[in-house]
Amino acid sequence: MKLAVWTYEGPPHVGALRVATAMRGLHYVLHAPQGDTYADLLFTMIERRDRRPPVTYTTFQARDLGSDTADLFKAAARDAYDRFQPEAMIVGASCTAELIQDDPGGLARALDLPVPVIALDLPSYQKKESWGAAETFFQLVKSLAGPAPRARAAAVQPACNILGPTALGFRHRDDVIEVTRILERLGVRVNVTAPWGARPQDLARLPDADFNVVLYPEIAGVAAAWLEKTHGLPAVRIQPIGVKATRAFIEEVARLAGVDPAPALDAPGSRSGWWSRSVDSNYLTQKRVFVFGEANRAIAAARVAADEFGFEIVGLGAYNREFAREVRAAAESYGLAALITDDYLEVERAIAEAQPELVLGTQMERHIAKRLCLACAVISAPAHVQDFPARYSPQMGFEGANVLFDTWAHPLVMGLEEHLLAMFRDDFEFNDAAGPSHLHAGAAPPPVAAEPEPAAADAAIVWTAEATAELSKIPFFVRGKARRNTEAFAASQGLSAIRIDTLYDARSHFTR
């Protein structure tokens, strides 16, 4: 075990908390010491939920370890039922409480409470948060949906379940709204959405649908596979992220539901295609992009970046190892080796080596990109409070494609067009020595750090002082690309030194 400032995933009981907090009428009794009682902070501060999470802690302390901590758990479970009157309960232990082996499931069953009690076995030292959420949802579905298939009455309108959205999920709230609108246009009724907003009794109705829509495989993949095997419910596993995937999603749903896809395919709302055609291609084409995050989001983001934006993928990775095989396959399609790690320092080294112009990642990659002076957009959890906006901001569907275009392209266009750099190279406002703005013309400009001498692509190539000074006049947001292009040009010409005329020649070469 090693200590870290940041972590991509918490222990598996945090995943269980995400499922419990997303649902209604479910209560989680967690055997945990004082230090593990941070659920309120997670959900009310980061996600800004309007109610506290449905969790009761035993909150034992060091002095309790010499007595019977099992009695503490039984008292907490009994009190939680009496106070909250839940429709069902889940019980388990935090990573610390797991060490004392009190068996919360057996203790809760001994209480003979008049509601279903589902015991969670979440090995904290082998698994992590996403696995914990998937296992919790699977155990709930398995316990409440019933083990035997039942006959479904013929329905006038096809129906489906939406599976996977949880609390603390990246834009899950808005994704559910957008996907529901798509299904309504197709004439498909949503039978149950779970875990988000579902009650325990709703999980018992899951087999009444005709098929499942798996929005988030890392949460609902296992439960959907069980429903398909046990109750014969096929699953749509296409994540509708980006225009192409949204159209494929609509066609797959229409096929399973036996309906015409045209009403959803022809619906207005997709503007990203026109927006991408209307901007200067210098903003988008061949921009170098590094993608890292939750596995399925990272795969989808890389696909959209390459196929719909014209970006060049220079790095792809994920932190959750359960989907490492899928990430590696996706990376191979771009000629890359996937980065599978939960060490943010390793991710930072990989980003620095790849020298991308845009990073698509989590809140950790946002901090990394800021240190490296790179543009960044957040695409997946873990996320900061600013990634849970008050506005409607989905990532899925046609409106989600519009949001992606705004959040991914805008960091690249916040500055001068590259073909205007020569015109403004010596302008007083667009160099490092400029003050904050014309509104503070009387203020002294801030001190400027010396431009570090660029690292040559070839050890034999060096930059002259005059060329380094000329490079520093190029605005910071494209300086890295100008440096790399110039070094590549010099190497191709067999030059040992980069002078001012080499800069100009390289610019002429790459703008033909």
Question: SSE layout and pairings?
Answer:
Layout: H1 12-22, E1 26-31, H2 39-46, E2 55-57, H3 69-84, E3 88-93, H4 104-110, E4 117-119, H5 129-144, E5 159-163, H6 172-186, E6 189-194, H7 200-203, E7 211-214, H8 217-231, E8 235-236, H9 243-257, H10 262-265, H11 272-278, E9 288-293, H12 295-307, E10 312-318, H13 324-333, E11 339-340, H14 344-354, E12 358-361, H15 363-371, E13 375-378, H16 397-413, H17 421-424, E14 462-463, H18 465-471, H19 476-492, E15 497-498, H20 500-510
Parallel strand pairs: 1-2, 1-3, 3-4, 5-6, 5-7, 7-8, 9-10, 9-12, 10-11, 12-13, 14-15
What keyword list fits this structure?
512 residues, alpha/beta, Rossmann fold, 5-stranded parallel β-sheet, 4-stranded parallel β-sheet, 20 helices, 12% strand, globular
Number of domains: 4
CATH topology group of the largest domain: Rossmann fold
Shape: globular
How large a portion of the residues is in β-strands, by DSSP E? 5-15%
| Gross CATH architecture of the largest domain | 3-Layer(aba) Sandwich
What is the helix fraction of residues, given as a range?
A: 40-55%
**CATH structural class of the largest domain:** Alpha Beta
- Taking the alpha carbons of the first and last residues, their distance comes to 54 Å
Strand arrangement in the largest pleated sheet = 11-10-9-12-13
Count of discrete alpha- or pi-helical segments spanning 4 or more residues: 20
In terms of structural class, how would the helical and strand content be classed?
alpha/beta
Sequence stretches where pLDDT stays below 50 over 5 or more residues: 415-419, 437-443, 445-450
Largest sheet: 5 strands, parallel
Please tell me how large the radius of gyration is.
27 Å
In CATH terms, the superfamily of the largest domain is Nitrogenase molybdenum iron protein domain
